[in-house]
Amino acid sequence: MNISITKLKERRHQPWKKNNLEEKAAYLFLLPWLIGLMVFILGPALATGVISLTNWNMITQPAWVGPANYIKMMGDANFWQSIRVTLYYMVLAVPTLSIVGLLVSLLLNQRLPGMNFIRTVLYLPAVLSGVAVAVLWLSLLNPDAGVINSALRALGIANPPNWLNDAQWAVPAVVLISLWGVGGNAIIYLAGLQNIPPGLYDAASIDGANDIHKFFSITLPLLSPTMFFVLITNLVGAFQVFDIAFILGGSRGGRGGSLLFYLLYIWNEGFRSSRMGYASALSMVLIIISSLVIVVVVNTSDRWVYSEVEEK
Amino acid sequence: MNTHSKTSFIILAIVTIVSVLLSSCGQATPTTAPAQPGTQAPLANQATVAANNAEKVKLSMWGFSGSSDTFTPEIIKRFEAQYPNITVEYTDIPEDTYPTKLETAMMAGAAPDIATLYKMEWQKGGKFVSLNDLYASQNVNLADVDQGGLFWSSYGGNIYAVGSFTSAVLLFYNRAMFDAAKLPYPSATEPMTVDEYAALAAQLTKKGSNPEDTIYGADAPVPYWWSDYRTTFSEDGTSIDGIFNSESNIHLYDVLAHMVINGDAPSTAALTAMGSSSRQDLLVQGKMAMVITDSQATTVSCEANHIPYGAAPVPVAEKGDKPWVFAGTDMEGIPAASKNIEAAKTFLAFYLVEGNKLRLENGDLPYNMKLANDLNWAGTGDTVGRQSELTAINLAGPAIIVPGMWDVVAPVDGAYQDIIDGKSDTKTALEGIMPQMKATLATAWETWNAIK
Questions:
Q1: CATH code, A76-303
Q2: Does any CB of chain A come closer than 8 Å to the CB of residue B277?
Q3: Furthest CA-CA distance within chain B
Q4: Which of A13, A43, A256 sits opposite B23 (nearest CB)?
Q5: B279 — contact with chain A (CB < 8 Å)?
Q6: Helix crossing, A130-140 with A147-154: angle to 10°?
Q7: How far apart are CA A32 and CA A15, in angstroms?
Q8: Phi then psi dihedrals of residue B188, to 5 deg
Q9: Which pairs with CB-CB distance under 8 Å and at least 24 residues apart come from A116-121?
Q10: Backbone angles phi, psi at B54, to 5 degrees
Q11: Contacts of B166 (CB under 8 A, 6+ apart)
């Protein structure tokens, strides 16, 4: 078929012309997803924004209060506590999960007998229900009768941590529980590792590179897109901690609010205390904070994420 | 912007606006106006049972009685036998999600016809129908019912729920352990002071080499939930200053914490080691001589295991303090948005009369205390235990309304544990959490006052 460039450009800018069936089809296929996005995500997000400017207790009609909820937030000790707890968890968990996931994937990438079985076993905790996992760990972390502290005492540690009963150890306990599900990250890293052309390692060996050189010069750079993906998903996951915190610390966020994660605080305010307006304001702030974090990470990714696309 | 982008933008904008409008079409418009206290909400489609007995009505009922509850299925069965044109479908919901689920349903106009009252905000906000006429129609004298349960079922001069049983938080004791120690039973009318309670516990404790082998004299749970709310809050429920940190209240917490420290009451770790899921288990097993717990479950448990028991009002801080008994009932009411209010009232009228009789048959103390006396509830089972229980429960009276109370007192558990662990003295521990409690209380009252 001989079509001039001009005619192609015309077709592109006139999608509703009869002969642009392909473009019409594309929009039609996109439409259900777009409608879903609007109805289930953007629409409720906009509604949340409006409700955040009201004082709604779910019993009487909402009353307009303007930015009062946001002003109140600034002086709310529980708000700052929930920010502290969530950020503390993020700072501890995200690097730990990323690094441990990478190390586990390097082990899983070895060609050894039974490796498929080991990969399955390591991935299993990631597919278990969060509530079931939390209930299990509640027993394991019992300071007096739990397996963890019994093992620590057997190793000679006379005063093991009080875990969930100690404000200092509560968040590290949640990080420990999260590490149990590191198989998910490891599988993603494994996929990235197996995409690295083996020829590069061979070439490096010929040039005299040792394993450490190969790791830092080949593995890490080529794995950086996968690391970026894992980093983003872990960051998002850190903002979404709820079920584990609810089971381990109860609805009020544990001893001294040590497990008062942000999402748990939103749930408390909205559904337990019937302060839906304030909870909506908290939700809007969460959207802003999490968006800022993700935007910063994405904008700085150029400096450390390797891309195979040639610069023009 | 080129033509292609402009067209795409317009299409996307239209989709966005339409979708936002669709997603913002929120609550179903209720078919009833919100009930005002003292009035019944007018309905377009009420099933008037009296007018047309042949009309089939299906009532939905929500509660959290638990999967082992046999009372609710039985009362429904008896009701349906008497009113064959009305069926009742009961849905059991876990208690921790029940208030949220019901509130959401009420907001969406999808509330059940009968539901258990849980938050006084619902009464204040007119979310339930007044049942004053129902009590009158069944000739139930309000003075005859359990006054604690009546308090929690009412607001602003209206009663919003009926009950079938009476349960109270009392001090239960194992009579056999007292007889073996040759100690007199606690009085069913005069509460012990906390010092007397601690001294008695010390006499009854038999220490073993580990928690599983120890027999504890008494229970020392954190007192905010079983002692008079007036030891924490002012009479109007708006303040804790000078009350929660009063010398008397500090003494109460101090003595109880030291009972645990001295080994006369079990610690949390000891309770875990003993593997017991409830306090009445420990009483029945002979591992604790006195427990502070719920009467309904304890009576059943003790009688089933042939443990001679007694009941008394809970300890108070000082001599001369008024006896305090927290009593309550199952509070079944009718959400104002129900489409079958008349049929629901028919069911609740049956519940108020026949439900109380069924409770008696099952050995439970009914909500109607006159019925309990007339049918000699205390004359069956463990008569000594039941008589002391009935005497103690008759001390129950009105409590005080404190919105969001459980959120306000949430930090107290941690402070109490700090006292037991020796991390803080009692006064410092209690005063240290007061700013947080006050802030939560202020917010709770703000929310409460916004409900009109």
A1: 1.10.3720.10
A2: no
A3: 98
A4: A43
A5: no
A6: 40
A7: 19
A8: -85, -5
A9: A119/A183, A119/A187, A119/A190
A10: -80, -15
A11: B146, B148, B149, B295, B296, B327, B328, B329, B365, B366, B367, B369, B372, B393
Burial B395-422 (b: 16+ CB within 10 A, else e): bbeebbbbbbbebbbbbbbbbbbbbbee
A270's tokens: 């909205």
- Contacts (Cβ under 8 Å, ≥6 apart) of B225: B169, B409
B3 CA to chain A: closest CA distance, Å? 6
How far apart (Å, rounded) are the C-alpha atoms in residues B54 and B71?
A: 27
If interface means Cβ-Cβ distance under 8 Å, which residues of chain A face chain B?
A: 12-16, 27, 31, 34-35, 38-40, 42-44, 46-47, 55, 57-60, 63, 77, 142-145, 165, 251-252, 255-256, 268, 271-275
What pTM value is reported for the model?
A: 0.80
Nearest to A166 by CA among A143, A149, A194, A146: A143
Q: Are B183 and B218 in contact (CB under 8 A)?
A: no
Fill in the amino acid letter for A178: S
Of the partner residues B2, B22, B450, the one whose CB lies closest to the CB of residue A57? B450
AA letter at B27: Q
pLDDT per residue, tens digit, chain A (312 aa), is: 555 666 666 656 555 555 688 889 999 999 999 999 999 999 999 999 999 999 998 888 899 999 999 999 999 989 999 999 999 999 999 999 999 999 999 988 888 888 888 888 888 888 888 888 888 898 888 887 788 998 999 999 888 888 888 888 999 999 999 998 898 899 999 999 988 988 999 999 999 989 898 899 889 999 999 999 999 999 999 999 999 999 888 888 888 889 999 999 999 999 888 899 999 999 999 999 999 999 999 999 888 888 766 554
Measure the CA–CA gap between A35 and A33, rounded to whole angstroms.
5
Confirm or reject contact between B42 and chain A (CB < 8 A): no
Closest CB to B273: pick one of A13, A47, A144.
Answer: A144
Phi, psi (deg, nearest 5) at residue B95 = -60, -40
Domain boundaries, chain A: 2-51, 76-303
Helix axis angle for B426-449 and B247-261, nearest 10°, is: 120
Beta pairing class for B57-63 and B332-333: unpaired
* Chain centre to alpha carbon of residue A283: 17
